[in-house]
């Protein structure tokens, strides 16, 4: 099992699983939005795009949706990288 990292720093196109969300770092509307979008422990997630200058949003896939998250929100989400499937 890998050490959890923040979604903000997850490499692009790397499959991961949401490990934990630090709800205390999020404002109530942000936390509500994440819950409505389906962010919860055990959910697969993948970073698709990240703004180059480091201040812009992080686009990620959760389920069949693509969502944009502000960097501080993505930083509150801890993920574990999925191990490669045995062939």
> Beta fraction of the residues?
35-45%
Secondary structure category: alpha+beta
Number of domains: 1
Order of helices and strands: EEHEEEHE
Q: Give the integer mean of the pLDDT values.
A: 88
Query: Judging by the overall fold, what is the CATH architecture?
Result: Roll
Biggest sheet statistics: 6 strands, antiparallel
Q: Tell me the distance between the termini.
A: 19 Å
Spatial arrangement of strands, main beta sheet: 1-6-2-3-4-5
Q: What is the CATH T-level topology?
A: SH3 type barrels
Can you give keywords for this protein?
87 residues, alpha+beta, SH3 type barrels, 6 strands, globular
Write the layout of secondary structure elements.
Blueprint lengths: L4 E2 L8 E7 L6 H10 L6 E7 L7 E5 L2 E5 L1 H5 L1 E5 L6
Antiparallel strand pairs: 1-6, 2-3, 2-6, 3-4, 4-5
What does this 3D model show about the protein?
The chain has 87 residues and is α+β, with helices and mostly antiparallel strands. It has a single domain (5-81), classed as SH3 type barrels, CATH 2.30.30.90. Helices cover 17% and strands 36% of the residues. It is built from two helices and six strands. The protein has helices spanning 28-37, 71-75; strands at 5-6, 15-21, 44-50, 58-62, 65-69, 77-81. A six-stranded antiparallel sheet has the order 1-6-2-3-4-5. Strand 4 and strand 5 form a beta hairpin. It is globular.
